[in-house]
Design goal:
3 domains; Ubiquitin-like (UB roll); 45% helix; globular
Length: 319
């Protein structure tokens, strides 16, 4: 008879260890089914959270073989096929304090969520009595971000969050975006500014939040929008905005990046000299950068500039 071995990380408040459980293989089952089976038939002390069993509440998120998943939605058959093994290691979500076994503490993140004001700041055009009419197009802007079930998977997979406690969790940035683009909201900056002040530009573009999201929310596009809005708000005196604007100008002017001036435009001359000079010298020695050679416009630069002009025209009409 085929069996599956689960190596589950246990935690009692002071000590952490792995404990193995072996259960018979059954086709068509989920990770949550296995956890419940272990608790009901082998170890009633095993602690985890679950509720809806239909990928709606988000409470059953865990990590399996280093990947964050919703236990109720994730097929055991798919995992066994992907990892080519009958041994699965189950651990709690990363970037969360652990309370017990697979249960994590959401209280610190809930407090941080409040900073972006994840609620509607109503316009004068509507009220609780008259309602807030939206066009289908306006509704579609908030439909996908509203699908977020705050399961914590994006936070668990976020590489920036693992290294930088100032960075806001992706699901919090999702809430900032969701209300900032809502046509019924009167103060989008009040949702966006806290994100900017919490290292919004430090996102690493690893796309782990996108690829692991059980609701397939394009968090990368939401973060890009928030960044764009901070520039429109005039918040350009920071390395992230300066770096983006330098990219914008270089591509418009020549169709390629000027790698010599890019760090200076981003960090300033003094900071570049004190922090980047050794790296720059290695680039020069290996021939990857020639400080005496300035980028010339690429063939077809006029076409690139027409694209810039078209986008600028569309932006003007939108405003």
């Amino acid at each position: 008879m085929r069996t599956i071995t689960f190596r589950i990380q246990r935690y009692d408040g002071s000590r952490s260890w792995f404990q193995e459980y072996v259960i018979p293989y059954e086709s068509g089952r989920t990770v949550l089914w296995a956890l419940i089976k272990i608790r009901e038939e082998q170890d009633p002390t095993l602690t985890f959270t679950a509720a809806c069993r239909h990928a709606i509440c988000g409470s059953c998120a865990v990590r399996v073989n280093g990947h964050s998943v919703l236990a109720c939605k994730t097929s055991l058959d798919e995992l066994l096929k992907v990892f080519q093994t009958d041994v699965l290691e189950v651990t709690p979500l990363s970037n969360f304090p652990v309370i017990r076994d697979l249960v994590v503490d959401w209280r610190p993140k809930t407090e941080r969520l409040k900073t972006v004001k994840p609620w509607l700041i109503p316009t004068q055009a509507g009220s609780a009595a008259t309602g807030f009419a939206q066009s289908p197009q306006e509704y579609r802007r908030i439909a996908s971000p509203t699908d977020c079930i705050q399961c914590g998977i994006c936070s668990s997979e976020c590489e920036q969050l693992a290294e930088n406690p100032r960075f806001l969790d992706p699901f919090i940035l999702n809430r900032a975006y969701r209300f900032a683009v809502d046509s019924r909201d009167a103060a989008p900056e009040e949702h966006i500014r806290p994100a900017l002040e919490s290292d919004l530009w430090k996102c690493l573009h690893c796309y782990q939040c996108v690829t692991h999201c059980p609701k397939e929310i394009r968090l990368d596009q939401e973060i890009a929008y928030l960044r764009q809005q901070t520039i429109r708000m005039g918040e350009t005196d920071n390395p992230g905005a300066r770096h983006a604007l330098a990219f914008h100008d270089d591509v418009r002017n020549t169709g390629r990046l000027d790698e010599v001036t890019l760090p200076i435009k981003t960090e300033g001359l003094l900071r570049t000299v004190t922090r980047r000079l050794p790296f720059a010298m290695r680039l020069i020695r290996t021939g990857k950068v020639n400080p005496l050679q300035r980028p010339r416009p690429v063939r077809g630069i006029e076409g690139i500039r027409k694209i810039y002009a078209h986008v600028k025209e569309k932006e003007g009409k939108r405003q």
